[in-house]
UniProtKB/TrEMBL annotation, chain A:
SUPFAM superfamilies: Thiamin diphosphate-binding fold (THDP-binding). Gene3D superfamilies: 3.40.50.970. Keywords: Thiamine pyrophosphate. Coiled coil: none annotated. It comes from the Bacteria. Belongs to the transketolase family. Residues 9-270 form the Transketolase N-terminal domain. This is Transketolase. Its cofactor is thiamine diphosphate. It comes from Mucilaginibacter boryungensis.
From TrEMBL, chain B:
It comes from Mucilaginibacter boryungensis. It comes from the Bacteria. Gene3D superfamilies: 3.40.50.920, 3.40.50.970. This is Transketolase family protein. It holds the Pfam family Transket_pyr. SUPFAM superfamilies: Thiamin diphosphate-binding fold (THDP-binding) (SSF52518), TK C-terminal domain-like (SSF52922). InterPro entries: PDH/Transketolase, THDP-binding, Transketo_C/PFOR_II, Transketolase-like_Pyr-bd, Transketolase_C. Residues 10-175 form the Transketolase-like pyrimidine-binding domain.
Amino acid sequence: MNKNVDELKQVASQVRRDIVRMVHGCQSGHPGGSLGCTDFLVALYFNAMKHDPAFNMDGIGEDLFFLSNGHISPVFYSVLAHAGYFDKAELATFRKLNSRLQGHPTTHEHLPGVRIASGSLGQGLSVAIGAALAKKLNGDERLVYTLHGDGELQEGQIWEAAMFAPHHKVDNLIATVDVNGQQIDGPTEKIMSLLDLAAKWSAFGWDVMTMNGNDMADVVQTLAEAKSRTGMGKPIVILMATGMGYGVDFMMGSHKWHGVAPNDEQLAAALAQLEESLGDY
Amino acid sequence: MKKYTYTDKKDTRSGFGAGLLEAGKRNDKVVALCADLIGSLKMADFIKEFPERFFQTGIAEANMMGIAAGLTIGGKIPFTGTFANFSTGRVYDQIRQSIAYSDKNVKICASHAGLTLGEDGATHQILEDIGLMKMLPGMTVINPCDYNQTKAATIAIAEYEGPVYLRFGRPVVPIFTDADQKFEIGKAWMVNEGADVSIFATGHLVWEAIQAGEQLAEMGIDAEIINIHTIKPLDAEAVLKSVAKTGCVVTAEEHNRLGGLGDSIAQLLAVNNPTPQEYVAVNDSFGESGTPEQLMTKYGLDAKHIIEAVQRVIKRKKTI
């Protein structure tokens, strides 16, 4: 699973193809944030984490990942499928009736790789903290990762959790925030300002790091550095700068592609920009 | 009418505290969380015995529910503790998504349910919690009647796999069940066999039902009294069997009449055996400040009101 940067870029290109095809296939879903977070999730599952596709809910002896901003399910499902959790052909059922690939991830359909439902925002950091505490009680030295949207930080529960983790020295936890500056109704700075996020997390007692979430080499290196800083009494948060819609020029940087599906022409234009590297499902 | 006596009175929340300690001793996977109400939830003994298995969240109930859900991933059996209002209404969406929909083995333990928190008033009381929790698919809802039964229920839910809402109160109430009882989730407890009316009661209103039953016996009315400690899953067999015999029903609960035990029974009967029914419950209202005794009287939750409901429903009984 330990792929190098060039190999990771190939996987990322295929995952981006999957995302636009999945959202096009059911004419609903969230392509923008999914495309922006692709490099991070690919690096996480194919380089940073120790994990087992022979899925076990408790995940003892494994690193765990929790997707808090569940609406970017297309990227999560595609990465899980390519990592071997389930057959890639199942990606074609995304958001369709009787599918295990619900619009937002859930344990209810027993899809391997999913340990908590998410969609209603702001809950994932608390869950991750609980899982990290269980690891400490179990003497399990593996780590817990999360991903949150920057708009999601407007939910109050995030800051309840942000207070708890440093207070209880939950230092086996690496949270990441997708700072793409966009939410459904527009730019975050217009909708509800987040101001200085690094200062906020730092003031709550977190070890704050930053990275370019669309530069694969930076993502791999920053995750490695973050891992080396665990176990030192503080939880870690990585503020990850990304472009919403990254990889598809007409989707780039616009909140308008937060939750809109491409039409046939737009799909063709998007796929023309993304190399097929591992074969389409 | 069977005779029930008591030698001691205790609060049901102390039964929870004692049960939690016992559950913790029996199974090292049991962990506890509290949102700044350790004393109110009687968690101190557990914390003293197992400090590493307790997590103080501060006044942050939503975070507490999420952390509890996360602890189950890794095999822990988390018990959360706060007031019933903050255990349900305040965190409904967290329970819905991270616990119920995610099938997590969390035990939501709620003290000060109902009206009898008393003087604090309606912000700290809740009369809607049974309804909120029973509407969640997969959620088990338990409302034990006294100290011993609350202790037994607490131990039993630790051994049961799945999300549970355990509801108990603040006031001191008579202990009339056995200390070594076996608590079976989903199995109603026959308090008194009778022929004229079925009284289905839950929580500390079971004691009021017993008081009512004794007075009804003197009036020549033979009441069957059944303790529905598990509201979901409802023991349909016990309810239908009783109603087939008596032909009329009174339900008694410290809850809004909308969405509580009475509605669960009415729904079962409407489909299977439509039967005259009277509710002893709060009539779609918030509570207010007052002593628990004053509130029980004002909102009609005592033995006197159960007797009046029995008299009304018996008149409505169908004659073949």
